[in-house]
Structures are given as C-alpha cells and as structure tokens.
Amino acid sequence: MTTSTVDLETCDREPIHIIGAVQPHGALIAFEHATSVVTYASVNTAAFLGAAPEEILGKKIGDVIGEENVAKLLTLPLDPSSPELLKPWFLKFSGADGRIIHAECLPHRNDGHIILEFLSPEPAPASIWEDELLRREIISELVKPGALVELAAASAKMIRDVTGFDRVMIYKFAEDKHGEVIAESTNRPDSFLGLHYPASDIPDPARRHFTLNVMRSIPDINGEHVAIIDRNGNVAGANSAAPLDLTYSKLRAVAPVHVEYLNNMGVGASLSISLITNNELWGLVACHHYDTRLISSSRLRFAELLGGTTSALLQSIENTTQLKKSIEAEKAAYQIEQKARSGASLRDLITDQASFLMELIDAQGLLFVSKDTVVRVGCLPEKPLDFSNLRDLLVDGVATSSHLSSLIDMDDEQRLMAAGAALLDLSEDGRDYLVFLRSHFEQTIRWAGKPEKVETKKEDGTVRLSPRGSFALWREERLGMSRPFDAIDRDALRILRRALFALNSLEHEQAALEAQKAAEAEELRLRHAMLEAARASSMGELTSAIAHELNQPLSAVANYVGACRQELLNSGVTIPARAEQMIDQAIKETARAGDLVHRVRNFISRGDLNANYIDLKDAINQGMDLALVSNDLPRLQVTLLLDSGLPKVLADPVQVAQVVLNLVRNSLTAMENASEQKLSVEMAEVDGFARITVSDTGCGIPPEMQKNLFEPFHSSTPRGMGIGLSLCRSIVEAHAGRIWAEATGNGTAFVFELPIQGGFDE
Amino acid sequence: MSKAPEQFSVYVVEDDDAVLHSLCALLNAHGYETIPCVSAEEFLDVFDPALKACLLLDLRLPGISGVQLQSHLNDMGVNIPIIVITAHGDISIAVKAMRDGAFDFIEKPAQADHLLEAVKSAGGLLFNRLPPMPSKKVVADRLAKLTDREREVLDYLLQGRLNKEIADELGVSRRTVEVHRSRIREKMQARGIADLIRMVS
C-alpha cells in the first residue's frame, strides 16, 4: 500500500486501455490478421464459444468459427470509425463440443489484430425497439426542441425509457472540463440536476476513451474481471510484454478507480454515451442503475442511436446559436463600416454603437483607447486599469478573461466592475484598443461533493488511491469573476475586431495622409511667404539704394551751392539780395528733395528683422529648395554639408533663406555655360560664427567687379539690377554678421558668417 | 564769413566723386585745407599723423568700411577727431561710432551750417579749445523738464534705436515718437542725437 499522497490525477497516467481483462457478460478472442492465428482469449470462452482458451489459442481462427464465417468476417467494416457505432454480427458455428453456437459478435481491427467480442444473443425475438416506426416517432420528438436544455431533457427521458435505468443524466462539459448536469430523468427522489462535477472526476485517459469509444456499458459494476491470456497463459495486461490494446473494446473491464467511484455513489450498473459535437467531447449521457442491469443489444443500440441523434441535434443547435451571434457581430461590423463610409470617425462610431456592441458581447462597460482619445461607456471603475497582462493572452488580436483580478492588481471597485474583460487590439503598435468589461457575476456553484477533497484516509492513517468518497452537496461562491467568455463570444469578438482593426488602420492612414498634405501646404505657404519677403526686401533694398544714390548728388548740389556763395563772398562780390535768396532757395530745395527721398524709403521699408533662435539648417535648406525649383542646369551636382552640431542661432529664418536663395541663384547663373556644374553649400562653426559657404564652378568674378560686388546697381550677372548681393549684405549686416566673396581654383565662393552668440545691439 | 582762425586740414573720405568734390569745395571756400580720399585705403595711404587735421568720414564705403577704419585708427592709437557722415536711418551705426569716440556725426544731405560748425568745433578741439558744453547742472535742469515718457524715449534714442522700434516697444505710433523726439530736442536744446549723447553721457 502506498503512503504517498495521491489523487485521481494519478489515474491520468493509468493505462486503462491495456487492463488485460473483460467484463463477465461476454468473451473476447483476438487473432493476428496476417496469420489468422488466435493469440488472445478471455478465460471464459467456454461459456460463449463452446471451447476453452487452451482449445483456441494458437489455432487458426477458421478452426474456431469456421472458414465460411471468417470469409464473411473479412468483408465486414472492421476499422474503428469515429463516432463508433455498434456493428453487431450474428453468426452461428459448431463449437468444439459439437453443439451449434449462436453468437452475437462485435468485431473490430486494432494494431494488426482482429478482436472478436462475443455476447449472449438475445433470447427473445427482436423486441419492439426494433420497430422502425416507433423509432421514427421517438426521434421526431427529439427534433422538436429548439433549445439546448429542452433537447437534453427530452433526450434524457427517452434514453431512460429505452434503457430502463434508474437515472439518466446529461452532462455538459465547461471549458475547464468540469461537468454540469443540465438534464436529468430519474425515478429516484433525489436529483442531481444543476450539480457540477469537478474535472478530475473524469481523468484524461477516460476522456480520450469517451471520444474514441462513444458507448460504454457496465451491466455490473462489481462483476468479476475475466482475464485475457496469451498463448503462454500470461495475462495480456499492462505488465505483460505484449498487452492487448482494448481501446475500442466494448467489453473492456472496469478500472478499479472507476469501480470505486461508482460504488461510492451507490451505483450498480452504468451506461454512458458520449455527446460529441464538432469533434469535441461536448458532454455525456450518464445512466445509473442502483442494481445490476444488463440490457439487450438492441436496446443498447437504440440508446446509442438516440445519443448520436442528440449529439447531431446539439451540434446543430450550437452551430445555430453560434451562427446567430456571428451574424449579429457581422451585422454590427457592417453597420459600423457603412457609417464609417459617411466619414464618421472610429471614436464617434464606437460611442454611437456602444450600447449595441455591449449588448452583443453581454458586457456592462466599454472602453475605447486610441493615442489621443478615450471613450468610456457604461459601468467602468473610477480608477483606470493597466491591461498589459491581459494583452499577454492575445490570440488573433483578442484576449479574454473572466477573472481579471487574477491577472491584474485591482481594488475592490475595479474587481466588482471589471471582473471580466475582453480586449480587442486595434493597431499594430498596441496603442489603440477596445475593451469590453463584464461586471462581477454572483455565482454559486453547487458541486456534487467538494472537488478538492479527493483522497480518503484509511483507519490505519495511510492515504489510498481513491476517488471522491462524498457526493454531498458542497457550495462554492465564486468571487471576483464574471460570466465566462465562451467560444461563441470569442468568435463574435474576432469578427468585430477584424472590422474595427481595418477601420482604425484606414483612419491612421488617412490621418497620416492629411498630416502630409498639411505639411506640404505649410511648405508651400512658407515658400510663398519667402518669395513675397524676397520681393519686398528687394524692393526695399532697391528703394534704399535709389535713396542713397539720389542723396549723393543732392548732397553735392547743396555743397556746391554753399561753396559757390562762399567763394563769391571770398572774392569780395556783393551778392544781390535776390541772388542770395535764390541760393538759399536752392539749398532748401535740395533738403526738400532729400526729405522726399527719405520718406519714400521709409514708406517702402526693407522688412523688419523677425529674429528667433532657429536651426540654420532649416533656413538654408529652404533657400536651397526654392533656388533649385527653377533650376535647368543639365549637369548640376549639388553637395550639401551642414554641420548639425551647431547650436541654435538668433536669426530671421526668412531673411537667412533669402541670402541663401540669392547666393545659390547667382551660382546657378554663373554656371550656365560651364562644363562642370558643381554647387556646394556648407555650414560649419568658425570662431563663434556660423559660417555658410556657397561655392560654384562657374565663370568667376571679373576683377573690375570685385570692388563693388556688394554695392547696389553693380550687377554681377547680365540680368537683374544688381540688388541681390547688396540685399544679402544688408541682411547679413543686420544680423551683425559679414559677407564676402573668394575666388576658388575653378569658380567663386560666397561666404557669410552669423554670430552664434547674440550679435545684435550691444 | 570769416576764415578759420588757425589753419588745419580736413581729410574727406567719401566714395562718391561728386559728393567728395563738393564737400571739399565747400570747405575750401570756408578756408579749410582739404585732403580728398575716395576710400579708407587711400586715406591710410596719405594719412600724416603730424598734420593737424580732422577726418570727415562717410561710413558707407566699399572695401574697408568707415566703422572698420574708425576702429583701426583707435587700435593704432591715432587720436584724430572724426566727424561721421551717415545716410538717413543709419542712426544705430552713428551711435556706435559716437560711442567709439567719434567727435560728431552729420546726416546726409548735410546742411552746410551744421557741417561747418562741426568742423570748426573739431578744430577747436585740436587747439585745446573745447566746444562750449553746458554744465552738468544745466543738463540736469533740462533733463528734469522731460516727462517720464520723454525720458523713456530718450533712453531708447541713446541706445541707437530707430523710431519704428521705439514705437513698437512703447506700443504707440511712429508719429507720436517723432513728436516726443522734437520735444526732447527743444527741452534739451540739442541739435540732434550727437548733442544728446554728448550731454547725457
């Protein structure tokens, strides 16, 4: 006897399919398909085949049941199908003792063997259950209900009618594999309806057998195990070198754990039929009898048929429910998509459709988060939640939990309002998402016995491998949990998510497009502003230059007239009063002309300095771009070397751009006829100044022009009035900088410097 | 008109031939010896430190500018009185020149009286006769007559700010600033900014 703690999970590892025995209500023999030699036999063959195992083992199967029957056998469908259906084969042959044996045989092939299971044929002729008409009537009763529970109840009742068991229950398995009795038909006073059974009640190997072998009949729980032996007389069980695989056997003996489990419940006979939908074990029809109960094969087969029909109907009802929900989700998605087409934003759509969406998902709260907006609808906790742990559960962009507090630290209010959550990821970067919150769901689960207490202690204190001893009602209050999100919910969520994700991506794309457009418009505006400023300042420079040029002769006139008068006085000439007056008048007029010029110049001002701390690179690039827009030099190569380590400089970006624009334009003009057309613009820091150099490989500057290069009206190009460089000088000097030109080996470099540290008023 | 009592020369540095020639003619007519130069470079060539002279300097010159020449002379320790000639609106440059030790400045087109007065004063300086300068008390009395706003405008003027800048700074029209300026000139009995700078600093 083991002393270690064990529970029913030990059973998960128990090899119940090689138990090496059958139940006593039938006999089993198996022969190798290839050699036809009988290799296994249960020790009770004499009662069913008229021959003891030692008379059969090692013989050809034809010698046991007759060649004719073997030929027939091999034409039968022998491979297990899923779901398995009983395929009885009625045969007769001469037994070893010479009497004619009538047998009902369930043959199947497994692992190179053909296994024959023999049952006592029904003594009476075919019972009324064989009546097709009756079957059809019963089945038409089953087809009527449209809801799961009604169908299950009808099915339970019918199966009890057919089998005569004391109690027929229908279990439905939840996602965590625990079972709930959703329908019951019984002649007993107590009821198990609504009780939950822990997942450990049906260990995984048993669960596997339920899907592979849908029908399991145990007429006597405590019936003797009838050993299966091989040709050496050894039991072909788990300890044998060559155990016989009884996965598909109908007679397979009952595992001791299961015997104990059923005994603990007081059950004497059991019959179970698996309910399988969409290839999953959906539930189980469990029939219990409180005495032994062997029912005829035909009833068994009919019960099986009823189970199969129930399965099919369940599947159809489930599929319909799922389809309905999916259609609703698709509808919701479609509506949102339609409305999105009319230009509504995702935010508005979700706000608008929130209550509809919440109803669809059966949620009480909705939260929509995107990078610049949050929408909150319904029951939401005051304090926001961090959903990052829930994100870890994302599958296809959807994560759900009905027990959020097991993932996230939450306060009481949060636990109440956000007991469960479904998160839909709406962007690649995870910044946009939609969350449905389900409130706390007051749930009391009535367990058929406390699920944890599965081990029992014997009087001597040792713990024994034991299924649950108590099936007394045990209530569990589930706290902090919401109604679970099931597969149907998740399908609907995925449908919604797909549509919302697509809309969100579209919205982001459009936003990016609009931002780009706005940026382009802004650039265009800047360009226009610069051109405008360039025109204005050229005009101002022109006026200023004209004013200067006019002032010079006006000064000279005034000086000459003044000098004249003095020379006359010096020579002793008495100036007539009228002449004296006219001299004064002439001088006054020059002053008036000067004043006029001054006022015109003030009127057309050069544009004021609008200085800011700016990145010179941007201004330079702008000037460059503008100058290159109208470039038509065929071989132009542009090199731009701008040191990005320079600090920001107090300067007027538009005016700096103008300087660059003028210099680059001059360079381009100078290179019009050059074979090499290389323009280079560089910026570097030199002794506290930002030095910008615009060099070209153009025609250079003729020596006679160099002196007056920056004076107005000394055009360096054949076109233009010669204002450009003068303007450049005005701008640079207004920035307390300087500008000059240098002859390079193969062209000209114009250089200007702007002080990096405050170059304005001292 | 009387001749200059003590003979001294005037270097005239001006790039415009007509202006240069006419200035020299005017000064010659009033008895001054003139040495015309079309550029700062030429001035440096012909400059004779032994000669008693003042310098009439146009600030806008090709090549070495007037401002550069002034600071160059300062660096060399040349102590020649400089009268700066500026175009209209170059007040800030003129103020800088004054700060750097220029003797006076004149706006173009220059009025003969103003010009001759300045040259005469420079001559007086050369012969250790300082131009008449109101006493500190007189200046203080005059300053006391200014309104707060006029004081404010004066401060800006002394910083070399343009009317427009002052107007923006004070949030008034340019016209108002001009009115303030003329009141300040009246009350301070100053001919122009040069006088104001001299009085107040």
Question: What does it look like?
Answer:
The complex is a heterodimer of chains A (762) and B (201). In chain A, α9 runs antiparallel to α10 (346-361) and α15 (616-629) crosses α16. Helices cover 39% and strands 22% of the residues of chain A. In chain A, strands 1-11-3-2-6-5-4 form a seven-stranded antiparallel β-sheet. In chain A, strands 9-8-7-13-12-10 form a six-stranded antiparallel β-sheet. With 762 residues, chain A is of the alpha+beta class. Chain A has 18 helices and 29 strands. Chain A folds into five domains: 1-7 and 124-223 and 254-328 and 441-482, GAF domain (Beta-Lactamase, 2-Layer Sandwich), CATH 3.30.450; 26-119, Beta-Lactamase (2-Layer Sandwich), CATH 3.30.450.20; 344-434, 2-Layer Sandwich (Beta-Lactamase), CATH 3.30.450; 486-608, Helix Hairpins; 610-762, Heat Shock Protein 90 (2-Layer Sandwich), CATH 3.30.565. Chain B has 201 residues and is α/β, with parallel strands linked by helices. In chain B, strands 2-1-3-4-5 form a five-stranded parallel β-sheet, sandwiched between helices. The model of chain B is unreliable at 1-5 (pLDDT under 50). Chain B has helices at 17-29, 40-46, 66-76, 91-99, 112-126, 136-144, 148-158, 163-170, 174-188, 193-200, and strands at 9-13, 33-37, 53-58, 82-86, 104-107. Helix content of chain B is 53%, strand content 12%. The A-B interface holds A 547-548, 551-560, 562-567, 569-570, 587, 590-591, 594, 598, 601-602, 605, 608, 707-708, 710-711, 761-762 and B 1, 16, 18-19, 21-23, 25-26, 28-30, 60, 62-63, 87-89, 92, 96, 108-112, 159-161, 164.
